[in-house]
Amino acid sequence: xxxxxxxxxxxxxxxxxxxxxxxxxxxxxxxxxxxxxxxxxxxxxxxxxxxxxxxxxxxxxxxxxxxxxxxxxxxxxxxxxxxxxxxxxxxxxxxxxxxxxxxxxxxxxxxxxxxxxxxxxxxxxxxxxxxxxxxxxxxxxxxxxxxxxxxxxxxxxxxxxxx
Length: 163
What we know:
Elements: H1 11-46, H2 48-74, H3 80-105, H4 113-137
Helix pairs in contact: 1-2, 1-4, 2-3, 2-4
């Protein structure tokens, strides 16, 4: 079976895309709700600077979370082992970008720093939890057969005796 390009479809990529879609659907509304709650609490707490800080913190957290899903979609066709290396590198880059953004926003007088940081932290935690729940609920096969249709024998990684 081939797709429009004449190549065999990648079953691993299809499962990763299915997971990315489920994780986005599962995390979008809880993330938005967390931004709204953070904005209301920050406004009551410190006024307009709190509102602005919470909205910017929520936007930064949303951008960070959506970047992870974008990276997941862009790398879905890669070999699973290479995908792990790209994912780790992507998280390191994302961490450094978030650190840089937070340092730049730290000096902006119109933003309340605690409202920004707490809303951002809350959105990231809620988003990650919602993604994990969506991941767990998504039905995907544990073993994805090779696209050639041939089964592969399991690898024995136990230490050899007598060596």
